[in-house]
Specification:
Blueprint (H helix, E strand, L loop, with lengths): L5 E4 L3 H12 L2 E2 L3 E2 L6 E6 L5 E6 L17 E5 L3 H13 L4 E7 L5 E6 L5 E5 L1
Parallel strand pairs: 1-5, 6-9
Antiparallel strand pairs: 2-4, 3-4, 4-5, 7-8, 8-9
């Protein structure tokens, strides 16, 4: 069995598409738009076959927040080395993404940093 994709509702579809294509080398398909429902989506494809579907529709609202809300927690990108984690962490910070944790070695041995994308969705970078 293979996980096909993960989907994420976003407020600003174009900004989030541009963020993931710029910093994570994602390739976006042509935007889908359903004029009846207002739904608009992109599939973002990453090296290795992983895909993220970003979606927007009129009338969306924010989930209740909290330190550990139910649902989507983070998306993780394996970069291959601590140096690459440090480099992309710095680029993302310079691009305005808040650094929430790290870079550091976790208790279970991962070298990682955690930042948020422009809409506050958590991104984990691992070596």
């Amino acid at each position: 069995m293979k996980l096909e994709h993960v989907a994420l509702y976003v407020e600003d579809l174009e900004a989030i598409k541009n963020f993931y294509t710029r910093y994570f080398c994602a390739t976006a398909n042509q935007k889908y738009h359903n004029p009846r429902t207002g739904l608009q989506t992109y599939f973002l494809s990453f090296e290795g076959g992983a895909r993220l579907e970003i979606m927007h529709r009129p009338g969306m609202g924010f989930r209740s927040s909290g330190e550990h809300p139910l649902g989507y927690t983070h998306i993780s990108f394996k970069l291959g080395s601590a140096e690459k984690v440090d480099q992309l962490t710095k680029q993302l910070q310079e691009g305005g993404c808040p650094l929430l944790n790290g870079p550091r070695t976790t208790g279970d041995g991962y070298y990682e940093s955690v930042l948020s994308d422009p809409e506050g969705n958590l991104i984990e970078l691992v070596a």
